[in-house]
Amino acid sequence: MDMRLDKQMDRRTIRKGATALMVLLALLLAACTGSQNVRETPASAMHAVFVEAGALAGNHASLQGDARADNARQIYALLARMDDAALARNAAALPVGDPLYDFAGQALLRRGLPLPRPFDSAARWRFDLNGRPPADADGYRPPVKLAVLLPLSGQLAVAAAPVRDGLLAGYYGENRRRPQIDFYDTAGTATGTLAAYTQASADGADFVLGPLGRDEVSALFRQGDLAIPVLALNRGDVAPPAGNAGFSLAPEDDGVIAAEYLLARERGNVLIIAGNDDSGARAARSFRERFIERGGNVVATLNVGDPPGDLSASLAQASGADAVFLAVKGDIARALTPQLALAGLGGSSRVGTSQLLSGTGKPEVDSALDGIVFPTEAWTSRGSPGLPAASVAAITLPTARGPAARLLAFGYDAWKLTAYLEKLVTRGNAQLEGATGTLYLDGFGNVLRTPAWSTFRGGVATPIADGG
Questions:
Q1: What residue ranges define each of the domains in the chain, with the CATH number in brackets?
Q2: Who contacts 223 (Cβ-Cβ below 8 Å, separation ≥6)?
């Protein structure tokens, strides 16, 4: 069966503070690495923790499965013990090709700090550049023939529809050269995904976008060396093979983003309240890991249902918290805010996840959420060049309404990444302003995102600059 559809379809800013000068000095040191007579920094002059992390990184490539994941966590935990200036300085001193550089670079990016030089992994990327015209001045260089793998049928078809529409909005909104684009239905299964990828390869695609489901991504990335580069649209249980990448709106990212937000504002003792759904649990777990890894203290973790019930006894034991992380939906957060106030936590910094918008929309009751800060998409909070205002799009396009709007912005950014991925790979500190936020690439093929920030004011979600 021909699986092609019948038609063509078309930082956070650098942390202010006393470390700024040291970061600049680190970058100046890195700029000197182009000289043929560079003197490498001896291990004895490096931070002891950095040397220990380097020993683990040197063995990383030989590990598999859980051992590999545990090794990575140990490396990041060691790097988290270094302040910004020391991390930047030691990363800049690493020789090209050192396996620790990709880890150190990712740690810098997560803190909103620049890279001393492009990731060393740039050499491991494959682009079929012989068939592509030269890049435009802004780095625009899309594929020649793009295959899009989406679950256009099956249980994930509802989620795929706004992703597809966002992709097409970007595709048709581009007035420069565009690739031929073919859609393949994965049916939301691993078998369907592998068959679709095989067919796309036989049809001469030079780049693949998708699949969308977590199991689909895992099945494809388990194949190892892939003949056609892939930008997957989710995070599976297997890291992207060399030369491939992954882009997602995973709950884990919300947890990491929230942890860095509070750490940047010197909040050191946090209470975690998580919903009993999968997204809440995953966001809470990643928040906890990152917050503790970076020296923070988790006072308590409370798991709540819907409704959350009476938590007064548990909240009384969290009196030392100076912040609250809410990995819950909006209706649950509304029920929690009076209890937090009675427990003396109403004035603490309160940060939610993107889930906070779920179950909201009535200002008269959502005013209970006033003051809670949460990450959101640039398009829905303040608009995005190339797309109409979210409120305008929602009038005529069902897939731009409610929670689906987030997936439409995600699809729009997926299109942009296919056209600018080479720029993100090869240019140091390259960023892409997208509908979901500012996008950049780490050394392991993960597209990272600095989101927009919003808060509730008068019961209405309102954008704020850099989280306020």
A1: 20-33+41-117 (no CATH), 129-246+395-450 (3.40.50.2300), 251-376+451-467 (3.40.50.2300)
A2: 194, 241
The verdict on pTM exceeding 0.70 is yes
Would you say 329 and 231 are in contact if contact means Cβ atoms under 8 Å apart? no
- Helical axes 65-80 vs 278-293, angle rounded to 10°: 50
pLDDT in tens, the chain (468 residues): 444 444 334 333 333 333 332 333 333 333 333 333 333 444 445 789 999 999 999 999 888 878 888 999 899 989 988 989 999 999 999 998 899 999 999 899 888 788 898 887 666 676 666 678 899 999 999 999 999 999 999 999 999 999 999 999 999 999 999 999 999 999 999 999 999 999 999 999 999 999 999 999 999 999 988 999 999 999 988 888 888 999 999 999 999 999 999 998 989 999 999 999 999 999 999 999 999 988 899 999 999 998 999 999 999 888 789 999 999 999 999 999 999 999 999 889 999 999 999 989 899 999 999 999 999 999 998 899 999 999 999 999 999 998 899 999 999 999 999 999 999 988 877 899 999 999 988 888 899 898 999 999 999 999 987 655
Euclidean distance between CA atoms 132 and 336, whole angstroms: 54
The structure tokens listed for 63 are 């590990």
